[in-house]
Records
---
Amino acid sequence: MSPIPVTLIAGYLGAGKTTVLNHLLSDSHGLRICVLVNDFGEIALDADLIENRSGDTLALSNGCMCCTIGDDFYDAIDRILRLDPRPEHLVIETSGVADPFKVGQVALAEPDLTLQGVVVVVDAVNFGASLADAFLGETLRNQIATAGLVLVTKSDIAPQGALKQLRATLAELAPEAVRLVADYGRVPAEMLLEPLALRLRRDEPHAHGHHHDHGAEYRGWVYSGDGLADPAALDALIKAPIPGLYRLKGLMPLTDGSWCSFHRAGVQSDRRPAPPPKGQGRAVAVGLADRFDPAQLQSAWDAILRNA
Amino acid sequence: MAETILYAARRIITMEPTQPYATHVAVRDGRILAVGGPEIAEVWGGARLDERFRDQVLLPGFVEAHSHMMTGALWTYLYCGNVDRTDPDGNLWPGVHTVDDMIDRMKGAIAKLPAGQPLVCWGFDPLFFAGDRLNRHHLDQASAEVPIAVMHQSFHLMTVNSKALEMAGYGPDTNAEGVVRLPDGSLMGELQEMGAMFPVMRRLNMAIRDISKGEHAIVQYGKAAVQTGVTTATDLMADLADDDVATLLDVTGRKDYPLRLVPALGVIGLEPKAAAARALELRAKSTDMLRMGICKVMTDGSIQGFTARVKWPGYIGGQPNGLWNLEPARLKELVKTLHASGLNMQVHTNGDEASDFILDCFEEAMWEHPTGDSRHTLQHCQMAGEDQFYRAARLGVCVNLFANHLWYYGDAHAEFTVGPDRAARMNACRSALDNGVTLAIHSDSPVTPLGPLHVAWCAVNRITPKGRVLGANQRLSVMEALHAITLGAARTLKLDREVGSITPGKAADFAVLGDDPLSLAPEALRDIPVLGTVQGGRVFVK
Ligand SMILES: [Zn+2]
Ligand SMILES: [Zn+2]
Ligand SMILES: [Zn+2]
């Protein structure tokens, strides 16, 4: 049995962890994800999505599940490892004051788990004040320092000054981490589930005698739906120059009834036949925040779709 | 009418100011009818004289206000500690002092193990073990085939043999932080913290939680209590699911069960309102022998693990400040909700920043909901300064200090964690009393061994294994220390109306001692033999 990949979602209270998790669980990525949370009341999942509730577990109609940690984190992990079938991915919401490095040790130590990444959610409006809090500052700095991916929420309502300050703080605390603007928790599931944080790095890690910002800010775009893609139009789109686009990938049904997977990384692109997945067709893109315009990609995407 | 029995003793230490000492106590219906001299039962129509305690000293039954249920059932595992200890069934286990001793004991146990079973050991304390640090090569001498895990006394570390490492899939590629290596880079066998211990515990089926509940655990805990003079004890963090409660009610309700149990509901994993509702529901199900309704709140970690939240100047080694168990904002909400529901909280706070913060929470909660005598208790509260004791007294908050730490970790605190000055004011019992704070002292068994006389000995002497006296000015008198393991502890649990002193109307709960703590040198306190207990008038003495 291959180990279950684990993603940790850290961040202080109110940063938006639960919104991110709500999106992840409601999304039609087709994966059987298990999300381990402190309290599932807070995630406020759509009632239609909940298939069954028993004690500390919510089973969702899309195959995902949500478990509460209860009073013993390791007990909860043990329960999940005993599940049959095992989930395809484990996402752990850590408490707002947890040290993700410590929590992540179990995924490094346990052969049935593998640590995929640490995602830290930061709220652009309140992060500055939290950092200044004597009870919290050190803990939060520490969280950021372990992040592979930082999700910035509430950037749309944060004052310009606060955003600028936040960028500088993040560049200093986690120069290697990728930053992704994720207002309202909107972030492509793939960003959380794949070791994308590594892939997004612009260069390979090297000796550090100096201080500079390797991270960059990204913006995500995601599609899921029943539309069929026109093969020629899709080919054209994945080769087209799209400003700031870093990565585009997906799994889509074509107008001829077959399915294909495609991806583009930088200038490389590829499309090939694929077996039909369980869920709907979907696509995800990530681009540099200052140049990539998700709305522009959306209209280009809409143009290649034919109704099912 | 129920029979009245008049016990004569060499001396009775009552903890009551009106009559601190007596020689006779009359018992009827499990309660104390009268206390005084040989004639004391006459006004009650006389009594049957029982002289079995003629040469013994009776104290109020000890109240262990911070210990855990697993104390008894831990003995399911093989004891490998350095001190001589008696298991709940009365068998003496001499301490092991060398690797050879330990290997011998393990080989003996392995010979009796059913096939396919791992050997799990406990009680090992590297601080008190001479020679090289224990590693897998030592344990491999006991067996190369049977997986062996030795839990350290702290429960934060374990050392395992090569077989157990192999089962956990640990090898050259393992890069988890807590998997310790020898100088040559090979695996040492020592595993630090749960992240690293978990893979071994899963594969060896070490269900630590299972030894914290169930009939066997409850029965063994009762036996361990009798041996140490304890008649009322907490299980200071329990799930208390419905089936657990049913078992607790059943076992504690048996006529030979010797311990009044006070389990505290662990509330950290619960939403505040749900926690309060559950605690109230449990409180309503309480019986004389099973007292539920108190709540256990966690705030920070441990000082020796550098996870306690400490105020400036922090740890002397420059370690980062410790970890909160829950976001401070959530903790405050939890405390306020429980307080507003009229529930009593026992709050784990090790570092002085944590105790400060919880005092803030209590104060805010009390402003919003003045509820009178709430008697919340700071548990451990090891680093509190004068300011915090003064404030606790004003708020009516009690402290239950971890006096045993002075002996078990005192040298480590002076040398590695907070330095000699702050170590000297750790578990500042004198400051608590002088500031007018209700004081209990505890063992946190099984973190340190159950035994209130040892805890009292620590509070009185404050000495360490290396011969330090940690804070001579914080020492208690023997009488004050005995108060802290009886009436003081009962007060922190709000049970002083019924137990904690020997006075008419209270439960006939006594600790039966082989000698008189007040006539011996203070250094001898921990060596006084405990012969058993009387609990609710029932005699539990061999
Ligand atoms: Zn660099
Ligand atoms: Zn504690
Ligand atoms: Zn404890």
Note: DSSP finds 18 helices and 24 strands in chain B.
---
Amino acid sequence: MSKENKLGRRDFIRAAAAVAAGGGAWMVSHPNEQAFGWQLDPRKCQQCGRCATSCVLSPSAVKCVHAFEMCGYCDLCGGYLQPGAKAQDSGAENELCPVAALKRTYVEAPFYQYTINADLCIGCGKCVKGCNAFGNGSLQLQVKQELCVHCNDCSIARDCPAQAYQRVPIAKAYMLKTLEKGSEPTK
Amino acid sequence: MQQEPTKGISGRLPARLWAVLTVAVVALVVVIATTEKRTEPGASYKLDLKPFTKVDDKDVAFRQTARFALNLDDPSALAVADSGTVYVAGKDAVLLLDAEGHETARHAVKGTPDAMAVAPDGRILLGMRNHVELLDATGKLLAAWKDLGERGYITSIAANADNVFVADAGNRVVMRYDYGGNVLNEMGQRDLKREFEGFVVPSPYFDAAFDQSGELWIVNPGRHGLENHRPTGELVSSWYKPGMDLYSFCGCCNPTHIAFRSDGSVVTAEKGINRVKVYAPDNTLIGVVATPDDLHAPSDENDSHSPVKDLAVDKKDRILILVGPMKAILVYEPKTPGDRKP
Ligand code: SF4
Ligand code: SF4
Ligand code: SF4
């Protein structure tokens, strides 16, 4: 059998997941207190890259989301720019995101807003790591429930080195870090 | 002619060999099923900050000469009084240490101060999130000043005989007070004639300190540099060094803390790449004080907060680094030629 024709275990799971996708979408549109799905805790995530490569879906059901109230609207954004970028602009060679999913919009000197094109985002978490290290940690990964097919045994959860995944009620599935007073260390 | 029935392969192999083959196939299936190793995500899926955290030994100009362990939770602020006494604030307490790091006194406070300064007469000023508390030299609360509003977030206090300068990261201003708690003026208004667009403070790191001649320096963290302001607010001079190399200030907002040595050099702490460095008065890098490894903060942890909670320089010109997770003050002095590795 040629390499191209071989149906690997992963391809099989992907094909099955595609069939299940309709059911997953239905579950999200009809959430009930009993329905459980998967979510990752951004406080535990180490941005290892597996959220992009281990999901049964391609691209992954994990996307970057932006907690705007935590963002510093920085010009020199650690999530947007390559660490060694020569210029602080939107030149492709300066962008950290491998698929140009992060968009930079000028607000007023010296502030910029950063938004994510979820259709492009593959959930790799590079921007999340840069934002955590150099900024406020406002960029965070989350399993998008409307995309997730709610595998019984989430294949990212199995591979996650940080044990960041847990079962959550789909109706309350998001667990972003926020800037609640007292929720963060003070200095 | 009657043909002999053809023996299938099953007929030709002995039963024992069959058993061995069956066990081997089952074992193979089990091994494949349980040891399926997903390929490691490639480099384009991961951000590796390690190359940026390496520090060449030739660039390290200071060495650690002492470590003061603190009997204090959440150490959060550090100051050295004119008397030489070291003050450390943390959860519900302010500790007084001698030059060897021995605790000589302890004042109880309510909460965890975010910032602290000691006035020349020994009075203690604490930044309690959005207001200042003034204590006498024995730790008795004298006054709580009017708060800076909902957004107020005091990250630094610098005090001389007449004035108290309070850096408020939430409102992106530095307030100048007298010791009665009266606001004398507010610093941070745009002054385009002097190309000053205000303080850019993306995160709660906003420090202010006096240099050896009493001049007030304020960090403009979003512009990656230091600014010398008159007490009335006008910008006198500034220097900025944004960049990822060792000679610059990395990330979105740095330096997080500053302190001046007696020769006019300035000690700076950075987050992101967690490190402490010293710059000469002409803004050239003298060298590294503490590397990410020294601070036990290798920069790839899931934390946007600096392990360095504050910096100070003591009366012996030693650099004191308050490292929160270690619950300790690390003491650094210049390396001597003998300390340097060949
Ligand atoms: S697999 Fe776990 S550690 Fe890796 S990016 Fe996903 S949540 Fe983070
Ligand atoms: S860097 Fe990765 S996680 Fe961030 S926006 Fe781009 S694809 Fe999404
Ligand atoms: S359960 Fe996990 S593996 Fe399955 S689609 Fe959702 S995120 Fe992907």
Note: The two ends of chain B are 96 Å apart (CA to CA).
